[in-house]
Amino acid sequence: MCIIASEAAGSDQAPPFLLLGQTVSRTIPESGFWFKLLPEATADIMLLLLQAVAQTANIEKGNVQLKKAIKLSTSARKFTAVLMVVASLLMLGFDWYAS
Length: 99
Fold this sequence. Notes:
By secondary structure, this protein is mostly helical. It is 87% helix and 0% strand. It has one domain (14-98).
């Protein structure tokens, strides 16, 4: 978790969530329980944020695939309906011709 924090901190411009963590760390006194947990909590929050962004991308890809599947299903339904009508008309035509 700390590797991600150090990579993001080493970039040219720090992401907003890092700046938020730095701001919070400046407002909390250096002695105390929360000051010791803040770097780990910031890394955990950052990890959760990165995972949420990745999942959002996955959901967007899933939505695109779902739209394609709906279009394919609609065209397959139309094709099946046309095939059934043509087959029925052919059967009626052959029956009429045979009698």
